[in-house]
Amino acid sequence: MLSLSAVAAPAYAAPPPSTPHRDPGNGPDRNDVAATDPPMSAARAATGENVAGDRSGYPRRTKLRVYPENPADKSIKLGLAPYHALAPKLNALQGRSDRISVEIAGQSGLGRDLYLVTLTAPESPAETRRQDAWRSLIENDPARAARDPFLRHGYKAPVWINNNIHGNEWEGTDGALRVIEKLATSNDPKTAELLKRNRFYFNVTANPDGRVAGTRQTSQGFDPNRDFVTASQPEVRAMRGIAIGKQPLMMLDEHGYVENTLIEPTTPPHGQNYDFDLYIKHGYANGLGMEQAVKALGRPETAKPEIPFRDYEPGSWDGWAPIYTAQYAMYHGAVSFTIEIPMRVNNQDYDTQPVPELQRRSVINTEVVEATIGSTLNYVDRNRGELIANQIEMFRRGEAGEAQREIPDGFVPGFGPEDRYRTEFPRAYVIPAGADQRSAVAASRLVDHLVANDVRVRQADRPFSLAGRRYPAGSYLVDMHQPKRGLANVMLEQGSDISAKVPVMYDISGWSHRLLWGASVDIVRQGRLDVRAHDVAAASPTGGIDAAPGRDLALKLTDGKDVSAVNDLLNRGLALGRAADGTIVVPASARPAAAEVADRYGVRFTEATGAATPLGRKTIAGAVGADELKALRDMGFDVRPVSAAVLNAGFDWSRIDLLFVSSGLRYTDLTPAAKDALRAFLARGGVVTRGATGARFNTDAGLLDARPVAGWEDGNGVVSVVNGTGPVGAGALPDSFVYGPFWFTDLGSSVSVEQRYASGNPLVAGHWRTRDDGTGGPLQAAGQAAVVSGTSGLGGRVVLFGTEPLFRDHPKGLYSQVAKAIYWATSK
């Protein structure tokens, strides 16, 4: 229940350590499920207008469109609110109360509205403008904000409650609805006072498509709680907008299910770019308060909540990766938490438990959500001044370029050397313009992504010199003396090899937009930034044609956008060519179309020289993960999802050019008829594989003579590679990404090495250990073949990837390597 009384923090007492459950989709599970096309949703057919009221004050009433009743909504069986019931409830509350505002934060992948509910005391337009000005001052002039007594007294503390980001972890929505209704309708004077001092934002369901379907993922098959530094999903982009626009002091992300209830803060490693001292004090104290609130429910099932920071071993529930909602929100100034409610009602339990038992569990879970929210709102109200000062100080340190603080042992109970993660921020990053930029379109994409994440980027008005290097006008500068320097650095640094620091990691441990997105990015360690520049709202256009009229055009495939441009032209029925080095040739007669796609995708055509073989439109049969399906389609490939079941049901191979195998397809699971049809295709068509499933398929189907060796299953991160001169490896980036890495040995004479893991230790950043028996580690992978190509005994061309070039829509600079593999494997 929402309580307005203070919750006393208990004395520290560590219960026995435990191990949290691991979510599906991690590790080897990635290879087992092939992506399918999402069904069309009734949401797309729903009618209704969003009628906005006055946006200048509060309340802001929106007449929400009402969706048709859907008896198939998976939440109904649990006695919870189906998605179609949310808009009527919120419309009714807006009619009853002047404390509640509802806005549309965005739409889901299938077009369902995302409801952002604000609870606060009514505000005049002038009062709202003052609140907005104070919020801006905190970020943009934190030193002045710290001196402003009116801000300290009058600023409404913003709190963000995020719910149901995993669609089949339902009860966050229902617990939030209880709190929303109480705040909106209570006659308690304490509630009225609470809303005068604070603003509470509720993202009612962050993943409505998953809620209705009873799936963890979005309709595109993505886990949105792994997507925050890439933001490939519309639901995640909406949450990013909330984090930036509302600038919460504290946030909760309500999940399930971990027995007893799990309440962050996390175990180490903690993200090295955080000002962790500004997080852990209130993170731990509020965690203890939520623990007491959950215990106070008096339920045996909630008697022993778990706080990973206190109760778990290092690495088992870490705070390292910025891919999660809570960890991402920290970079925008929030003290944030993931909450895992206790009673499992999804997956196998949903199908096997009696309905009364499922509903009993859901009642308990809803109470836990309500308790954690209520306790948090009380904590913020009691500690409002300190939390405001906390956020101001984070932004002030960033703007001033101050070093992170050394945190002493015992700063909070249990804090010790294992919790100490720090970094040294560089003075700046430079993204050069001009001929030395490997891919201007990649630089433009990176700049736009940084700006979309509220990272400040400037563009030089004239040539300049930094750190002994000369840069042309138009180059981009990321001055690391900025409020959100931690977010800038976590995207642009290479990361750290933390393999020796913790025994296990919960999910990925390495990422780098600088190394994996295809742009050239220089590091300036120190010095003055005497650069005349202007703020960037969007990157400069990069597309164009650098060839004389009447000449054939050439396009090198250095980026996925280059591939998109090529496939766009092919899909128009234009006849293109492919040179021996993989360059795409566009005839002079297609120049108007080339100019159009150059502008659309930001690519640059040069003048073609030499001969080229015809290149036609490619259709792919894809037994691939959801992330790979999206990446391939984003590049413009026509992909038909397949699996063992689809092939066994009878599949028309006549229009297929290539089979891509990475998930959900085992050759040994095929019927004799399906095998015969497949082998007939393999005699003429190309094959690209990735990972464990792809390596097994290659072996079972007898394609290339290459023995796959599996690295440590949990190994992941950025790796250094050495590229060959073949059609796939030539011109690739010097870094790649792995997740359950593979390499290939005992290569036949007809197999070529396109890419090798670098010698020594190829791991640049991440977590990749050697097994206890001395196998599977990065030192064993060093120098081994990571990507190979060749012609199979059946006649088709084959490329095998031991790396992860399309992982979760992140390593965008590797996409062109996959496209080159596809074009080569389908060429004769």
TrEMBL record:
Q: Which PROSITE patterns match?
A: PEPTIDASE_M14
Co-factor requirement: Zn(2+)
Biological process (GO), any one: proteolysis
List the GO terms this entry assigns under cellular component, sorted alphabetically.
extracellular space
Protein name in the entry? Peptidase M28
Source species taxonomy: Bacteria, Bacillati, Actinomycetota, Actinomycetes, Pseudonocardiales
Q: Bias regions of kind Basic and acidic residues — which residues?
A: 20-32
* Alphabetic keyword roster: Hydrolase, Metalloprotease, Protease, Zinc
Classify the source by domain of life. Bacteria
